[in-house]
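Review form for a predicted model. The reviewer records the input and the model, then writes brief findings.
Reviewer: anonymous (R2)
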Amino acid sequence: MKSGNIPYNVMMPKTNDWANVPRMPQAIVPVLATAFGITSAVGTFLLTAAVYIGVSAVTSWALQALAPKPKSGVQTQGLLTNIREAAAPHDYVYGQVRKGGVITYLEATGENNRYLHMVISLAGHELEEIGDIYINDEVVTIDEDLNVTSSPWNSKIRIEKFKGDQTTAPAALVSQSAHVDNNFIGRGIAYLYVRLDYDQDVFANGIPLFTAVVKGNKVFDPRTSGTAYSANAALCIRDYLTADYGMADVGSTDDTIFSAAANVCDEDVDLATAGVQPRYEMNGVVSAALAPGDILQSMMTSCAGTLFWGQGKWQLRPGYYTSPVKTFTLDDLRGPISLSTRTSRRDNFNIIRGTFNNADARWITQDYPEYKGNTFIAEDNGLENALDLELPLTTSPAMAQRLAKLTLFRGREQMTFSADFSMEAFDVQVGDIIALTNPRYGWTAKEFEVLGWRFFADGDAGDLRVNLALRETSEAAFSWTAEESAIISNNTTLLSYTEVPPVGLSAVARTQIIREKLTNIIALTVTSGNPAGVDFVEAQYKKTSDSAYITLGTGELGNFEAIDLEDDTYDFRARAVNAFGYRGEWEFLTGIEASGLLEPPQDVAGLFAEVNGTTTHLEWTPVLDLDLSFYRIRHAVETTNATWANATTALDKVSRPASFASLPTRPGTYMVRSYDKSGVASTNYTSVVVTSDVIPDYANTLTQTDSPTFSGTKTGCSVTSGELRITDTSTAPSEATYDLSTYIDTGSVRRAHVRVDANVNRFDSSSGLWDDLPGLFDGLPGLFDDFTGDAQFADTNLLFYVSTTPDDPAGTPTWSPYQQFRAGEFYGRAFRFRVVLKSSSVNVTPSISGLTALVEYN
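Model under review:
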């Protein structure tokens, strides 16, 4: 050929002029790499192509809609045209497509320029086949002489096909042209030689458009070690990586990985109507004018694939689910976690639409059916957000729809996770699927796709680490038949951010001494079947009879204590609050009783008396109740049928921890009861009898008995029915004083043993009215028929006083002040006595039926 007529760079095979093109993947998708900051292997990075519109680079793809649109890596605009250029870049065809070409030679010959000769270059390489020829937009028939027989072009157009393997020039052109000879071969260039026979009527609208359906390049198949035509997307990508017009990285492909990828692309996928088709094919044209990165990015759309550089080789992972290669747990982490659960609303698309070259519609670029994710739209609060996804290398409507749905589903898998892992992650590669278990996030073997892999030494920690950049994935995201709900439900086993787990409640009442005070405590335990979904809980309580709840506290699941409660029944409620501040429903627990303040301490046990002359020593077994405060000792002169109520207080308090007391010796019955810090007495008293035969004998005993007339001096008391009582008990407390009618004269000054014996009963003047009984009806001790007999009230008492003089009491004696006593040794000649009657209840009085003072001496 003569280079002056047909430009060399168009018609002749190109030499390898890619020496200055960077081999590093940074030249391929810098926009995506910058957006994600991801590397793919030691010192290199993940090549993210068009697949990550739906996986990890979906955000970057969306950003491209806001930024200047990058040039497409394939020939789409003007594909079905004939253009004239002096120097045009080559087109490279993969798979099957209909295309026009570059008019690289144009010459008129014959009388009056009757014939117009055209060379239309279709591809810069050998084609497998040049099939149907379209003139304008109709397929034409060609006879054996290469003449078009279809109307209106019948015999006016002659078309000869050259696939690029030709070794001779077009004979018809050489014979008629004055400018070309037999060297006009166009080695390695696929083209059409077209000759038009001028006819004013046939070519009234000028030169028609010529296009052809072609089958593209022959590609090497590492599975068979053979080279043949194939539309297998993985094999086409491998061919571009190794071809001299592509990346020219011969020997740099991992053919084991590419063989597996090719098998995936060859798998049959059921069509919705009937039959099957290969999973992924590449059918289209790439232009030598574009950067390899743009071309590879477009190539990825044909197989939803990931192309990356790993272990010194190019590797391809088409859009296909594989089981996780490894499962990692929190034990495998070596640093902080970076987790992003969702993309921004702007980047969170829920509709996929776009174009493809429809082989079923004469290979014209059309819109594939829009896929609208109604479930996703509902999840996005009804806001529709569409992504325009071009599929320039896809010609099947069914395949275009599958790619669109896969893109949407993988795009909705929005969660990204990044962390440093142990060396267990060293053999994980980009494109692998791993499983990750993290109970805090509700993940049990949740699946992630590896987007980035970086190996490094951590100087601070002194260890080797692998940083993985992950994006959630699932088998459903790759399935043609999957439903949208399968994608949403895969996010986590935790509840939705608006949902809050219910809680369980239990409570235990107890008492405890706090600052020397018995305190009612109810411990509320709050639990949950899903503690990971609970940030904290709120707990409240109230008396059952109240209407308003009181805050018990906020905090983690576990125990909350209501302290210092009155004896009553209480209701509790609690609810959980999740990490987003959403509150759950109240859970209730009612009728929990606190009764520790009213529960009496244990009865005194082991009481015994030991008489040592004028002293009686009482001792008993200590009561172990935590809230024990003291013991009270009462004394009655009776040795039989004595009762707590019809006795007098011998010792008001014996404070814990003491469990003994020494008292002046008196015959009769000693009674002991325990009291708690709230003043509640033990249910029963415990008694011991001291008889007169153990009391020392005295040679002389002088007595003064005032009963039953009680003729002594009365202050606030009076005699009724032969018994001395407080006159007015309408208010409480009340008391009265009675001085015995006379003194006891021993005749000379001496030491004498003195005591007063009094028979006393508790008298209730309320005539037995229920409302006048002290305390609660259910708390009354004793039998129903004996409220005032054996009833163990201690609301009455007698205090005894003595006054002495050394003088003759018949003269003008000087008497000592009265001093309180029970029994004891006193020094003097004469002795006089006083009794104080005391009551702490309304309408209740001590009633003295017998009163005798005794002075004994030897």
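Findings: The first strand starts at residue 82 and ends at 84.
Further findings: The chain has eleven helices and 52 strands.
Recommendation: see findings above.
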